[in-house]
Amino acid sequence: MIKFFRKIRFNLLEKGKSSKYFKYAIGEIFLVVIGILIAVGINSIYNASQNEKKIKAILTQVQQDLKTDIIDAKRIYNVYIGKDSIFQKIMNDTITFEMYKKNPYPLPITGNYVSFSNKKSGYNRLLNNLENLPEKYNYLIPYLNNLHVEIQNEIDDYNTFIKNTVMIDGRKDLMVNPKIADYSMGRYLDEAMAYYFNDPFLKNKSSIYMNDLGNISNAANEYRVESIILYKKIDSLLDKTSTEYNEPFMLCPKKESIKDFLGDYKGASAVLGVTVSVSMENERLVLKSPVMPDVKLYWHEGDYYFIKEASVIVKLYKNKQNQAIIEFSGFGGNDRFIKNKQETSN
Hints:
The chain is an alpha+beta fold. It is built from nine helices and eight strands.
């Protein structure tokens, strides 16, 4: 090909057709430039395609991290629910020694701490590739920063608080009772349980601990809600909009399972008043009370729900008389509301 063009140039010059030669030369240069631009364009398209593939892989890792965190947040709320059941009995003086011994947490409920630690590998990889991030993904950054900076700061504080509470109480006991180390190793179990059960500061210690546990559980639940929302936004960007979400990505149960609980309830509560209602709005359960702003109820699992704004355990269930009950538990208190009999759900 090069010899062919060279021959044309030689013939034009030999015949003295310089004007045609210059026109030809300009045309040849133009073709070369066009060729270069096409090559650059193809290379640019290829690089963009490879970069898109890389960013999608990173976002998939972000989603895997979010799923792990969502499951861990559920674990913490389950611990909170389990310990709250015995805490209620401690605060209301209805617990017996035999009941205490059957507690799934064999030493006092203050005897261990839970912490929430989120996964950041995908998030950190994304931060390291911000200069290559396609514009359509930019709007994810504020949501990620909210999780890994703002909410994470709260979680770090609450992790520290509950750890300090457990460690300080443990050290005090070590200085008072020479058998604490044996108790911690599972020795003299009945004696150990009697020691903790008869502790005159049991209520105080339990209250401090449950306040700390409630805080970390509440922060983890907030993280969980925002993680599920972000997970679905990433799905949308990755063209997975047809995905049907099941556990652990459901924040509201299917309507068939909840329809009997929609309606008005009566009870008595210093905080909520004497009436509350539960409704479904925009695929979310909403709790309404005349004395406080509306709040969303987020589904945990089974009969249990949570409120993002408070460390309150919410339970929707039916009693032996098949009456729909909504129950609120937290800070040693327990309020129940019964659905109005005339209420029916479609």
